[in-house]
Design a protein that fits this description.
By secondary structure, this protein is of the alpha/beta class. The protein contains 9 helices and 14 strands. The strands form 4 sheets. The protein has a 7-stranded mixed sheet with strand order 2-10-9-8-5-3-4, with helices on both faces. Strands 11-12-14 form a 3-stranded antiparallel sheet. A two-stranded parallel ribbon has the order 1-13. Strand 6 and strand 7 form a beta hairpin. Helix 1 packs across helix 6, helix 2 crosses helix 6 and helix 7 packs parallel to helix 9. The longest helix is centred in the last third of the chain and has 21 residues. It starts with a strand and ends with a helix. The structure holds pyridoxal-5'-phosphate. The site of pyridoxal-5'-phosphate has 12 residues, from helix 3.
């Protein structure tokens, strides 16, 4: 067996310890006589798994008691509809900042139900920066203010939150638990698990309780957060195995010293890569330095043929999934929590070698 360094944007690498633990427990979980996959979600064993997953989210992210933690299905994309349906019943209006494909999709989906005010956009420069916000463009009657915290495709991230008195709703799919964030600054946070938290199929949702209970009448039962909040994420069968693996990932994060410790490692990893990009004569980063993501680093050579040659040779050397998103071209290295420092160092060494051979 030889595992590669996987730079995929998602689904992405999981910590090897987590995969091994899942392997150990595959045929029999504890003394249950069965795999987690075969368990009733109403069983005592399973209840312990989901309770422990929730407790770990609360502990690691320091989630206050007046927030609900839920494990839902439908990916990040289902949240694009759930957010307006649940949180915009007062004025049927919300502010969105357009920083890439995911924010764009979220705004377009919201527009099916409510009035969307796009307060700013960085589309003019292929989303290579986080736009400066001008408060005079904010709606005084918005029900919420929406951002995509880390832009997976374009490699930007917020380092400062918008100054607004409306509940901030943030898509943290590609940066959840990669850096410390203050949950109390948000009305609601959500993350598809497959970037940084576990396998595809689970979406982590954290919502302030006072925002619940006012969904539009047309909201389907399954798309109403209240349904899931009232039933401990077990109104129907939850994605049981995905939640179990997510729990293993959270235990791994805790064993590493928690999110603050991982943040230090993530900052060190990103620095290794960006420092090299800044010094290279062949490769260059596509994002303005002050808004660079810790998780997703897009870069180009400026020559499509050379980009393709690099991606192919990198793959052959065990550095896979480095091809950039089709809208940016070039390359993108996603270096989530599970990517070890050695993986980033090895990639940079490989890039240096490629540069010296192809200049
Ligand atoms: C991947 C991603 C999504 C979409 O997630 P799905 O689970 O595929 O629906 C949404 N937002 C961000 C920031 C993402 O990275």
């Amino acid at each position: 067996m030889s595992r590669v360094y996987n730079f995929s944007a998602g689904p992405s690498m999981l910590p090897e310890e987590v995969l091994k633990k899942a392997q150990d427990e595959m045929l029999e979980y504890g003394k249950s006589g069965m795999s987690v996959m075969e368990m009733s979600h109403r069983s005592k064993d399973y209840q312990e798994i989901i309770d422990s997953a929730e407790a770990l989210v609360r502990e690691l992210m320091n989630v206050p008691d007046n927030y609900k933690v839920m494990f839902l299905q439908g990916g990040g994309s289902t949240q694009f509809a759930m957010v307006p349906l649940n949180f915009a019943n007062k004025n049927k209006k919300a502010d969105y900042v357009i920083t890439g494909q995911w924010a764009k999709k979220a705004a377009a989906e919201a527009e099916r139900y409510i009035t969307v005010n796009r307060v700013a956009s960085s589309a003019d420069k292929t989303f290579s920066y986080i736009p400066k916000l001008d408060k005079s463009t904010f709606s005084s009657d918005a029900d919420y203010f929406y951002i995509c915290y880390n832009n997976t495709i374009y490699g930007t991230r917020y380092t400062q939150l918008p100054e607004t008195d409306k509940p901030i709703i943030a898509d943290i799919s590609s940066c959840a638990m990669s850096e410390v964030i203050d949950v109390t600054k948000f009305g609601m946070l959500f993350a598809g698990a497959q970037k940084n938290l576990g396998p595809a199929g689970v979406t982590l949702v954290i919502v302030r309780e006072d925002l619940l209970g006012d969904a539009m009448d047309i909201t389907p039962t399954m798309l109403n957060y209240q349904t899931h909040a009232d039933n401990g994420s077990m109104y129907n069968t939850p994605p049981t195995y995905g939640i179990y693996v997510l729990k293993l990932v959270l235990e791994w994060i805790k064993s590493k010293g928690g999110i603050a410790e991982l943040q230090k490692i993530n900052e060190a990893k990103a620095k290794i890569l960006y420092d090299y990009l800044d010094s290279s004569k062949m490769f260059k980063g596509t994002v303005v330095p002050e808004d660079r993501s810790l998780m997703n680093a897009p870069f180009v050579t400026g020559n499509e043929e050379l980009d393709a040659k690099f991606v192919a040779e990198a793959k052959a050397a065990g550095f896979v999934n480095l091809k950039g998103h089709r809208t940016v071209g070039g390359m993108r290295a996603s270096i989530y929590n599970a990517m070890p420092v050695e993986g980033v160092k090895a990639l940079v060494e490989f890039m240096k070698k490629f540069e010296s051979e192809n200049m």
